[in-house]
Amino acid sequence: MPTLILVRHGRSTANTSGVLAGRTPGVALDERGAAQAAALPARLAGVPLAAAVSSPLQRCLETLAPLLDARPELRLETDERITECDYGDWSGRKLAELTDEPLMETVQQHPSAAAFPGGEPMREMQARAVSAVRDWNARVEETAGAEASYLMCSHGDIIKSLVADALGMHLDLFQRISVEPCSVTVIRYTRLRPYLVRLGDTGDLASLLPRADGAAGSERDAAVGGGAGAA
Questions:
Q1: Is 101 left (phi over 0), alpha (psi -120 to 50) or beta?
Q2: Distance CA 49, CA 13 (A)
Q3: How far is CA 56 from the centre of its chain?
Q4: Helix residue spans in 19-115 (DSSP H)
Q5: Residues 21, 153, 134, 118: what is their CA dihedral angle, to the nearest 10 degrees?
Q6: What are 101-152's pLDDT values in tens digits?
Q7: Whole-prediction pTM value?
Q8: How far apart are CA 156 and CA 170, in angstroms?
């Protein structure tokens, strides 16, 4: 099955202003986020991508724009199922204000029971994102083969929930996972189980390149081997 390269959008104006953006329109990358996006093509240079999928929100589309410019053969698809969590009435509010909301403790400690007022339950957020990945895995494998890699650009809570699913973690533990803006998280899916290859990586990605002999890279070998002696 394919390898999924998850990219969180670059730092946004909402990130720097401490606002819970949610699906609020017009939230763009800030100067730092634009620089992070500009560096993404070099970080992924040489990594073959069978598909590029994005949340339809502006900050994700802006993050992938330099990569798409560098790879004109790569056609972008958007998928509503990997868009940001619908925070409902919380959208656009300052995070500092939300800390005193009784629901915030549930969001942090028992997210599977959290449902945002006027928005969606966090368990439904995870379910739709996992469904999207399963569908794209099948689609990419059918069109590009089981060893193909593809990219998704999404949001922090979406990526964290996908990592929790890959690790067999309950959603109630997903707040222990951290993914920084424009970080790369890689999940290798196989018939029996997924393997988390990278988590929240903000540095060099050269080890994701295919080896000269056509075999998978070292990190994938270590993951599939799974033994105590794997490097």
A1: beta
A2: 29
A3: 13
A4: 31-43, 58-70, 95-98, 102-109
A5: 10
A6: 999 999 999 999 999 999 999 999 999 999 999 999 999 999 999 999 999 9
A7: 0.86
A8: 17
